[in-house]
Amino acid sequence: MSSLSGKVCVVTGAGSGIGRALAENLAARGARLALSDVGEAGLQPTADRARAKGAEVHTARVDVSDRAAVTAYADAVATHFGVVHQIYNNAGVAHSNSILESEYEEYERVFGVNLWGVIHGTKAFLPHVIASGDGHVINVSSLNGYLAQPDMSHYCTTKFAVRGFTETLRAEMLQAGHRVGVTVVHPGGIKTNIATAAFEEAKASGKEVTPADEERRRLYNEKLLKMDPAQAAEIILSGVEAGRSRVLVGTDAKAVDLLVRLLPVRHATLFAALQKRMLK
Fold first, then answer.
1. E strand intervals along the chain
2. What share of the chain is helix, strand, coil (3-state, %, to 5)?
3. What is the rounded distance in angstroms from the CA atom of residue 93 to the CA atom of residue 157?
4. Phi, psi of 60 (to 5 degrees)
5. If DSSP codes are grouped into helix, strand and coil, which group holds residue 97?
6. 86-89 vs 135-140, strand pairing mode
7. Are 57 and 77 in contact (CB under 8 A)?
8. Which pairing describes strands 180-187 and 135-140: parallel, antiparallel, or unpaired?
9. Which of 22, 23, 179, 193 has the highest CB neighbour number within 10 Å of its CB?
10. How confident is the model at residue 264 (pLDDT cuts 50, 70, 90)?
11. CB–CB of 26/237 below 8 Å?
12. CA-CA distance, 272 to 280, in Å (whole number)?
């Protein structure tokens, strides 16, 4: 029997991608689920799949960038189940633009979801997770939580910050003696709609879409975003059950982590040259 059986697990961004896969895998392991997403269209199919596996499921539309909404959601989940054991702060968005050309609003939007969403979720659910006596906080960073790339300052800044925030939380939980595991997750290229969603959002906002932007989307979808979300969820949950503080998802994430450690200065030059070649 899985150690997650009977646990109340909260998953944000559960309407698609890794979030949906986490929900399905958690359901298969016997967890009770609180699932949220900013869009209800994807959330209901996820809930249906989880219920088909026998899980008790609570759903809510939640914008994780809205502090009051997340706080109210945490209270609602705790009231519904009576306890909360785990929070998976998974919701995230991507964005591509140079620092020189980026507007402050672009940073605010990505920061609101990717960083503040993690902070809001952690702060709102942490008292409940501690009170459970056997809790866990899982925050999803990225390969870009230790590798910076051109035109991705919005995303990289938030994912580096999620890593630092989560590692600080782990130190505090250990220092305080709370029975709360803390895990930061660094996925590599997972086959989700994050690249396409960022592209479509840029078009909708009136940003000029160049051939280079089109090629970058094609590159990500066809060559870089390769791992099935179900496989990613299995790796993440196996890491959580094993009590790992850091989970690298995918051979690309592991290889890049090693390269950054071995070449802390030169790796930036190597990756810039590689990306330039791939986009030709």
1. 8-11, 32-37, 57-61, 86-89, 135-140, 180-187, 246-249
2. 55, 15, 30
3. 13
4. -160, 145
5. strand
6. parallel
7. no
8. parallel
9. 22
10. confident
11. yes
12. 13
Token pair for 58: 């609570």
Count of beta carbons in the 10 Å neighbourhood of residue 108: 12
Q: What is the chain's mean pLDDT, rounded?
A: 88
Residues 6 or more apart whose Cβ sits within 8 Å of residue 237:
4, 22, 25, 26, 29
Task: Give Dmax (Cα) for the chain.
Answer: 55
Token pair, residue 118, equals 């993690």
Quickly tell me which residue has 């990505």 as its tokens.
Answer: 110
Look-up of token digits 């990306």: 275
Give the other-Cβ count within 10 Å of 208's Cβ.
7
Q: What is the DSSP letter of 111?
A: I
Task: Check if the beta carbon of residue 117 is closer than 8 Å to that of residue 12.
Answer: yes
Return the residue matching tokens 């991507």. Answer: 94
Listed in order, strand segments (DSSP E) in 55-179 are 57-61, 86-89, 135-140
CB 65 within 8 A of CB 117: yes
Query: What per-residue confidence (pLDDT) applies to 101?
Result: 94
What are the chain's domains? 8-192+229-271 (3.40.50.720)
Question: Roughly how many angstroms between the first and final C-alpha of the chain, as a whole number?
Answer: 51
Per-residue pLDDT tens digits for 2-50: 899 999 999 999 999 999 999 999 999 999 999 999 999 999 999 999 9
Q: Can you give the pLDDT at residue 199?
A: 42
Active site (catalytic) residues: 155
Strands 246-249 and 57-61: unpaired
